[in-house]
Amino acid sequence: xxxxxxxxxxxxxxxxxxxxxxxxxxxxxxxxxxxxxxxxxxxxxxxxxxxxxxxxxxxxxxxxxxxxxxxxxxxxxxxxxxxxxxxxxxxxxxxxxxxxxxxxxxxxxxxxxxxxxxxxxxxxxxxxxxxxxxxxxxxxxxxxxxxxxxxxxxxxxxxxxxxxxxxxxxxxxxxxxxxxxxxxxxxxxxxxxxxxxxxxxxxxxxxxxxxxxxxxxxxxxxxxxxxxxxxxxxxxxxxxxxxxxxx
Length: 247
Description:
By secondary structure, the protein is mainly alpha-helical. The chain folds into 2 domains: 6-144, NADH:ubiquinone oxidoreductase-like, 20kDa subunit (Rossmann fold, 3-Layer(aba) Sandwich), CATH 3.40.50; 155-244, no CATH class. Helices cover 40% and strands 7% of the residues. The chain contains 12 helices and 3 strands, in the order ααβαβααβααααααα. It has a 3-stranded parallel β-sheet with strand order 1-2-3, sandwiched between helices. Strand 1, helix 3 (55-66) and strand 2 form a beta-alpha-beta unit. The longest helix has 13 residues, at 132-144.
């Protein structure tokens, strides 16, 4: 759907595991990897990247759901609308007029939405891009018929395991790590930067408490809107928190 294809490329990055994976599954439609496409039929497992941003994509995802036994959506775009969902908080028609010389030629929905807003999904794999170990875990779980073992924990846990000094406490930086789903390996904090929330909110994320703490440190409400309205800003928990601080 609407995406940069980075999450699909994550599968190709699984170099050492691809041969074993190829023995376990028959990949029938993967344009990033092969021109031999067989998109017709019914499928045991379908991985879909990208948000629903055009009327054509809305029709396509409904068809994909109808022919898929299991539908797994991968990446921030597919699970929360992605960075393109920033248009959800603005004037879509104005964006069209500014960007395109002839807006009437462009078919686009007013909002960029996650796939789960339109069809039932069996699993959401977060990230921008997704983590290849988590992707392999989801595929393996599907092959053997069990639930994927993706823990519901915050990025803070990954910081602890890596021995990364807390950038909130030691550096005074704004960081979404306490409310963001783990999976990136604490990449940004490891390079002395606050978490941007690429993996979206973890379950039961206490965004209100984090925002209150940040405001108490002198951050403005506009800072909070920017912090929660980035790559996964349309995820319900982050969207709700950002709207709480709008002027």
